[in-house]
Amino acid sequence: MHVERLGIHDSVSAVFPPERLCEALADLHPEVVVVDDAAAISACDAVVTFAHEEAFLDLEWIHSIQAGYDRFPLPELEDRGIVLTNSTGIHGDSVGETVLGYMLGVSRRLQQYARQQERREWDKPDWDVPFTLAGESVCVVGLGTLGRGIADRADAIGMTVTGVRRSEEPVEGVDRVYASEDLHEAISGVRFVALATPLNEHTRGLIGEAELAAMDEESYLINVARGGVVDQDALVAALEDGEIRGAALDVFETEPLPEESPLWGFEEVTVTPHVAAFTREYYEGVAGIVRTNLERIAADGTFENRVV
User: Which residue numbers delimit the D-isomer specific 2-hydroxyacid dehydrogenase NAD-binding domain (predicted)?
Assistant: First the structure.
């Protein structure tokens, strides 16, 4: 593979200005340009993108600025010999801090006070409602970069941290690691269940009616993975029936979350617009992976974070 022209697809503007990434890569040998239509894409050898376009199927290499790659047609890319890489490894800090923020918002009632401020209300919660995170428990489902970012911060503030992954190999900062088949045991009896797993054929609908029933009535579901990991109708039913206390959700089956969704109306549900990984340094992390891969192409043809 030889990359003479690298396109930065305009879709990355959903996260950061494409020009910032162009500037960060301006010293490289390939010409780096912003592209926004099929004609401009066809003049490139590779592209860095947020969204997928049919025009990419004529390129040699696609890099996704997200860790998730479920929006890309993997079988077709493989058939055509197109390399797909992703940005896994750069979101641990931002997502970990976001999840810590969710848990602090619940324990210290920060969302409640924010809503009261909008209404100019001075109202204190019942004495037994606020709690501290120290000594509380969280089960992190998925212990890759995102999951470890969550686990590290939860462990640092004194929480009991358990996790779920395909193997039971120990993870630093995680008190116990459960195998995937022991999911129900892992999520029962903990205050927070945080989802940080990729969306694939094994994880789609991972959290459904049975899993929500296995959780404690005072527990909260946190989803910073993908909307499809959770059966959203089952979640709404569990919240309405009091099977779990609440949720903090950054991702949804349909995005933007429709105005008519019941999830907007629950007092104990926090909705954020798929921004858990957002940080002003985001483009720098992407630039680092792209730079490494361009160097590897020139050296031995291997790729960091290769998906296909």
Answer: 100-276
